[in-house]
């Protein structure tokens, strides 16, 4: 009865337009108060405990670090550096948008933030060069998803907390899939640009290359410091996030000199607002998940899936289908919190590494960032490019197809996500 009330009230609230974080909370308390199955005080305690986590401290720090670097003029410097590497290829600016997103994703840890920061720089430039507006928005949206995979990733921090998996190991495991995603998107950019006649940029002198790298290298050192420190065991992912904030302030305020006190206060306010939204969502999704777990729903679904087949590859493909569907309707943070307890039971029964699975889960859910009706990167790109969601949805289809093929490769060749972590001594 509790599960019926929980799910019916949740979907009813979503249908009438209640924000998902409030829908999760209201449906959870409604189910408990109407059935009396669990004391209400339990939900209050679970809400607090959901965010009372040292590991989750990494999220506000990474959000703050990303906002500091974005406000400090990093986006333009990264795009200038990317232009020297891939700008001369057919569809040069599209490749610049993708490579810049990879660079910026290694700073922000967020797909929407990456789409917004790089899109603000690249969309006007691509429109000046007569790139189709819908194609431009599709490129920026698809490239923004790299921000979820390339380390650091806020979504991986959430999964690691829920699954009791090593966040540092997942960060390193995300490097291979993240770079593969970059290559796939660039290949699609090239094929479309070649067909439509989008030319590359003019010749870039050696002096321009040196200047671009001189300006951009300070930004690129942040992910090196983060991963290097975690890989070497000098600090935890949470400590790495705090160091990233300190480094970002130094670079933005004193190296690039693009951030004054007024900018700093704006970043502080924006970061606090983003963090509050994320953690409020985490807390409410956690109690929703707790109620499902109290009724043994994850365990029953795990038994059902494992009864269908004992082949780990087939299990992974079944999970991929569920994640692709869930990604179309749920924000990735909500999907991670709701689905992790279910699927961790399944993959552990199949002896699948939970860190590799975490990278895979985040990768597949990232595809949902560019699929309607809840594709956040899609909406951000449409807003920047001032183009309708219908037009961009058509243009983004080749990228969705390419990312699904990449996800299939991750199932067939798990070494893409496990090779680098296997070189570390992390637990």
Notes on the protein architecture:
By secondary structure, the protein is mainly α. Helices cover 80% and strands 0% of the residues. The chain contains 22 helices and no strands. It has helices spanning 2-15, 20-35, 40-51, 58-71, 74-86, 92-108, 111-128, 133-144, 146-149, 154-163, 167-173, 175-196, 206-232, 237-255, 261-294, 297-308, 312-329, 332-349, 354-367, 376-385, 389-412, 415-422. α6 runs antiparallel to α7 and α7 (111-128) packs antiparallel against α8 (133-144).
Helix content range of the residues, please?
over 70%
Per DSSP, the total helix count is 22
Total beta strand runs: 0
Rounded average pLDDT: 86
Q: What order do the SSEs take from the amino end to the carboxyl end, as H and E?
A: HHHHHHHHHHHHHHHHHHHHHH
Structural class: mainly alpha
Coarse shape: globular
Report the end-to-end length measured between terminal Cα atoms.
Answer: 40 Å
Radius of gyration: 21 Å
- Uncertain spans, ≥5 residues at pLDDT below 50? none
| Major sheet details | none
Residues in β-strands, percent: under 5%
Characteristics of this structure?
427 residues; mainly alpha; 22 helices; globular
Describe the secondary-structure layout:
Elements: H1 2-15, H2 20-35, H3 40-51, H4 58-71, H5 74-86, H6 92-108, H7 111-128, H8 133-144, H9 146-149, H10 154-163, H11 167-173, H12 175-196, H13 206-232, H14 237-255, H15 261-294, H16 297-308, H17 312-329, H18 332-349, H19 354-367, H20 376-385, H21 389-412, H22 415-422
Summarize the structure.
The chain is mainly α.
